[in-house]
Amino acid sequence: MPAVRPVALATGRLDLLPLLPAHAAEMASVLADPALYAFTGGAPLGPEALLARYERLCAGSPDPAVVWANWVVRLRAGGGLVGTVQATLTPARDVAELAWVIGAPWQGRGFATEAARALAGWLSGLPVGRLVAHVHPGHAASAAVAAACGLHPTPYRQDGEVRWEAGGGAGGEDAVRQR
Q: Residue 3's pLDDT is what?
């Protein structure tokens, strides 16, 4: 697989911008609600800790067989950041693992679905045979996002989460355009 780098993507209401360390200060407030971590564990990071995390993510995976692709999600109306989406690609396994998080004030408006479908659509242009997401069995909203991306629950569990799977790019081909 040629080098994979996130590119700016756009949907009807959102811009997905490749993650930069400069996003950390604004994202620290977007991700500050402890309720966001109810299903995933952890706690909000402050701006300095998030900056360090974003610097690590932007440096790329230390495993040359794995590609980290991360975006911030910006609401076009108003221009503020509202969340993140990411894909961890493992070309040798022909798989991309998706994840998403939208800040609490912006939840319930379909932004996670719109952003995740954009990501799935972008991945459909790559040689990725399988999309995967891990969703806590009690997290109905994330299960709905996974389903909207064309993923289906499997009987497999990892760290208590349900593994959802689909063929590469399912559910997202018409939801995204590169900017």
A: 73
Residue 153 is encoded by which pair of tokens? 């629950």
Q: How far apart (Å, rounded) are the C-alpha atoms in residues 4 and 7?
A: 9
Sheet architecture: strand order including 177-178: 152-158, 161-167, 130-135, 95-102, 81-90, 67-75, 14-18, 9-10, 177-178
Residue where the block lists tokens 């780098």: 5
pTM for this model (two decimals) = 0.90
Taking the C-alpha atoms of residue 100 and residue 66, their distance in angstroms, rounded to an integer, is 18
Half-sphere exposure of 131 (CA within 13 A, CB side): 29
Are 145 and 107 a contacting pair, CB within 8 Å? no
Task: Tell me the domains of the chain and their CATH numbers.
Answer: 9-19+65-178 (3.40.630.30)
The average pLDDT across 160-165 equals 96
**CA–CA separation, 89 and 109 (whole Å):** 28
Mean pLDDT, the chain, integer: 91
Residues 166 and 149 sit within 8 Å (Cβ to Cβ): yes
Question: pLDDT tens digits, residue range 92-130?
Answer: 788 999 999 999 999 999 999 999 999 999 998 888 889
Query: Exposed e or buried b for every residue in 88-101, given b needs 16+ CB within 10 A?
Result: bbbbeeebbbbbbb
Q: At CA 138, angle to CA 145 and CA 90, rounded to 5?
A: 50
